[in-house]
Amino acid sequence: MNEIHRFKKLSETQFKRYTGISWSTFYLMVEQLNMHVPAKGRPPKLSIEDQILLCLSGFVAQSCS
């Protein structure tokens, strides 16, 4: 199961607390990244949404410690 399905259950406040950004900003990031991802080569194992969530969760964890 993709991580995004677990996060979609979160409210706006809970999502912002975990990632540091709002849902609207998250979807803007997904849209922009989708425009710049090359279509060639091997497909990624993680979806774009999961890649962004992974980066954001690591960034928030580092800034809190």
What does this molecule look like?
The protein is mostly helical and 65 residues long. It has a domain at 11-34 and 47-65. Helix content is 68%, strand content 0%. The chain has four helices and no strands. It has helices at residues 3-7, 12-19, 23-36, 48-64. The radius of gyration is 13 Å and the shape is elongated.
Notable features of this structure?
65 residues; mainly alpha; 4 helices
What is the gist of this entry?
This protein has 65 residues and is mainly α. 68% of the residues lie in helices and 0% in strands. The model has no long low-confidence stretch (mean pLDDT 84).
Helix and strand sequence: HHHH
Radius of gyration computed on alpha carbons: 13 Å
- Kindly estimate the percentage of residues that lie in beta strands according to DSSP: under 5%
Binned, the helix content reads: 55-70%
Structural category is: mainly alpha
